[in-house]
Amino acid sequence: MLEILEHSFVETLEISLLVFVALVAMDLIYIYSRGKLASFLKRRPATQYLISSLLGAIPGCEGVYFAISLHTHGLVSFGALLCAFIATTGDEAFIMFSRFPMQAFGLTMLLLGIGYLIGWSFDFIRKKVNTQHETHCETEIFHPQEEFSLSHYWQEHLWSHIIKSHMFKIIIWTFIAIFVIELAIQNFDLRNYISENPYWAILIAALWGLIPQSGPHLIFVTMFAEQSIPFSIFFTNMLVQSGHALLPLLSISLKDSIIIKVISLLLGALLGSIIFYFGI
Description:
Elements: H1 2-32, H2 36-43, H3 46-57, H4 62-72, H5 78-87, H6 92-99, H7 101-128, H8 150-185, H9 190-196, H10 201-208, H11 218-225, H12 231-240, H13 246-252, H14 254-277
């Protein structure tokens, strides 16, 4: 138990630090661009989906953290955020590119394309039914009438906005999620269960992808590298999972988190089953 607590605490600090850096980077880029980033995205809304998909395709979770920050401030749509979550494979990407680089690149491009298509389609349908998605952060980043002030940035942006409004909740949610997941994983032997229940493997891979952590999904990376499972099962898990990226979003919007994971789960199970049917 003590080991799990220590591991959860250290991993929470690492994730929270990366999220904090992404949030500050977003603020500073927006301020120093004098609002040009927002203007560019609003003038060319189609670029939101490509930019978000590319951010998600970056190995690790940092790209998705940045996409979450963009969405939080209303600079990209929910559909664009969905692109990033579908395209990402979390920290597992580093292992994939070291063990089977060509297949990893192919999978990344496939998920990037699927993410772009699904994200764009989601927003297209939402606009047709005239529904609006909420913006979660109303803090104004850019004040065109004011010169940049370090003291103002520290008080109003860094402390009052990023740290007090976002980071405290992110740290708490992250620690609780990691601790509960670590306890559960220690009592479940996934590898043997898949071997004994091959026809349930797609569903297992999809459900396992709901875990908001990077480590647990290395099981599927290892099994695919060892040719213990077909590509369809591996693909299903990689599409549904999003590494640690869901943790900061949970602290911002539980509703958005559930919508993203439900869409990913259904999409992964459907596409994975189709690929599995054709023997891939």
